[in-house]
Amino acid sequence: MGKPLHLWCSICDAYVNESSKHCGVCNRCCLDFDHHCNWLNNCVGKNNYWNFYRLICVFLAFLFAFICVAVFAIVEETIYERNWMLGLVGTQIFMNAIAFGLDAQLVHLHRWLQAREIGTYDLVIYQRKEIEKKKDLKEGIIDKAEFDRWCDTYFTVK
Predict the structure, then answer these.
(1) What is the mean pLDDT of residues 134-144?
(2) Among residues 135, 110, 133, 141, which one has the least CA distance to residue 123?
(3) How many domains does the chain have?
(4) What is the domain range of residue 4?
C-alpha cells in the first residue's frame, strides 16, 4: 500500500504524493520524479525508471554489436565489392562509436546515481546549490571547512 495522497498540486488540480514533482514540460506530476527525457518526450520516475535504464543498456549493447559486425565486415573484406559501401560503413562505425561513448557515459551516470540512491533531479539540485555555496565561499560568507563539510554530508543528512 502506498503513502496517502495528502499534498495538492495546484497546477494539476489533484492530490499528489510527497515524492511527486510537477514537470513543466509534460505539464503533469510524476511519482518519484527522476528527470524529463527529451529523447523519449516523457518523464522518468518510479513507474518507468527501470524501463528507461534497461533501454539505455540495450541501446549500448546494440551499438557495440553493430560496431563489432561492421569492423568484422571490413576486416574480412566482405564489403570491398563496392568502394562506396566501405565509406558508408566506415562512417557508420564512426558515428556509432560516438553514440556508444555518449550512451556509455549515460549508463555510467545512472549506475553512479543508483549506487548513491539518488536521482538525476537530486543531482541537478545539488549542483545548483553547490554553485551558490562556492559563491558564498568566494565571498567569504563560509570557510573552506564548512564548504567541504556541506559537500560531504549533502546526500547523507536527511
Answers:
(1) 93
(2) 110
(3) 3
(4) 1-35
Catalytic-residue membership of 26: no
Residues 99 and 55 in one domain: yes
Q: Does 76 score more than 90 pLDDT?
A: no
Task: Looking at the structure, tell me whether residues 3 and 59 fall in a common domain.
Answer: no
Highest mean pLDDT among 17-31, 84-98, 123-137: 123-137
Do residues 106 and 126 share a domain? no
Question: What is the per-residue DSSP string for 35-47?
Answer: EEETTTTEEESTT
Is residue 72 in some structural domain? yes
CB 16 within 8 A of CB 3: no
Options 9, 23, 29, 37, the catalytic residue? 37
- Whether pTM exceeds 0.85: no
CA torsion through residues 51, 124, 36, 18, sign: positive
Task: State the Cα–Cα distance between residues 36 and 24, nearest whole angstrom.
Answer: 9
For position 1, what pLDDT does the model report?
Answer: 47
Q: Is there a domain that residue 41 lies in?
A: no
Residues 57 and 103 in one domain: yes
Separation of alpha carbons 99 and 102, rounded Å: 5
